[in-house]
Design goal:
The complex is a heterodimer. By secondary structure, chain A is an alpha+beta fold. Chain A is 38% helix and 29% strand. In chain A, helix 1 runs antiparallel to helix 2. The relative contact order of chain A is 0.20. In chain B, helix 1 packs parallel to helix 2. Chain B is α/β, with parallel strands linked by helices. The radius of gyration of chain B is 13 Å and the shape is globular. The chains are: A alpha+beta, B alpha/beta. The complex binds adenosine-5'-triphosphate (ATP) and magnesium ion.
Chain lengths: 134, 120
């Protein structure tokens, strides 16, 4: 079975909720356990909130990924916001430029199996995460 | 989205729904504190059984609610964190330190009734 690509425009806090709900649906369709679906939905929530908080708008794309002999889910969060000056710093637990907990990015990294981030100042940020089905 | 707040004696019970947005959570934070003041409540039970995701914003809001309510001399008990949600919270690095938790509504009420035996 394969699921098409799902794209959710992120413009407001309400979109955070719909993005994570859609992520859960796709995770279920791909055969993830409900525990894993919760991890995936939580990661989507953090990535979508970062878009709203720092870039105001962007999008979340959710799709199936196929490995050699495994299947998984990919979530891509991208925006054309201000970008991140120091990615290493941003990935550190507790680092926040908004007085928040600074757990979003490092937490998402722990919730998912693969984590890639690219960011350019003034151009935007793209975070791609994957989780493989056990 | 409306979060029902039920008054039960000296306690308030707020039941969270699955799909609360940040705006809903902010509104709830103000609403709860206002109700605590209005009814001179001794404690608040926040039932999160229906919540499918507890992310950094939601847990920070819960901590703030508990803190504000404590400043009013009342107590907050969070009940019903689902096992899967708890697991995700740990992975994310979230804690609800300093906030009382209980398994479910029944245990939360039992805990508070014991604590406020003489006054409620
Ligand atoms: N999409 C983005 N665009 C620009 N900056 C970002 C973006 N995402 C994260 N950042 C920067 O990286 C920092 C760390 O992000 P992270 O999500 O880990 O923590 P936070 O959002 O500050 O706090 P929390 O997520 O715990 O509420 C942010 O404070 C912000 O400066
Ligand atoms: Mg964040």
């Amino acid at each position: 079975m394969s699921v098409g690509e799902i794209r959710v425009a992120i413009n407001s806090d309400q979109d955070i909720v719909s993005a994570r709900q859609k992520g859960r649906v796709v995770a279920n369709e791909l055969g993830f356990s409900s525990g894993d679906a919760t991890l995936i939905a939580t990661a989507i929530s953090e990535l979508a909130r970062n878009i709203v908080s720092y870039a105001r708008k962007g999008q979340i794309t959710i799709r199936q990924v196929n490995g050699l002999n495994r299947r998984g889910i990919a979530v891509i969060a991208d925006d054309e916001g201000p970008g991140i000056a120091d990615i290493r710093q941003a990935l550190r637990d507790g680092f926040s430029t908004s007085g928040s907990l600074g757990l979003g990015l490092p937490g998402v990294r722990r919730l998912m199996d693969e984590f890639e981030i690219t960011s350019q100042l003034g151009k935007g940020t793209t975070v791609m995460v994957k989780k493989w089905r056990p | 989205m409306e979060v029902p707040i039920l008054k039960q004696g000296a306690f308030l019970i707020a039941t969270f729904q699955a799909a609360l947005s940040d705006a809903d959570l902010n509104q709830l934070r103000m609403g709860l504190v206002q109700q605590v003041v209005k009814f001179r409540s001794r404690a608040v039970i926040v039932d999160v059984t229906a919540m499918d995701v507890m992310d950094s914003f939601a847990s920070r809001t819960l901590r703030e609610i508990a803190h504000m309510i404590r400043l009013r001399g009342a107590e907050t008990v969070i009940v019903g964190i689902q096992p899967e949600v708890a697991f995700a919270m740990v992975q994310l690095g979230l804690t609800l330190e300093g906030v009382a938790t209980a398994l479910d509504l029944e245990e939360g009420l039992a805990y508070l009734n014991e604590k406020f035996k003489t006054t409620n």
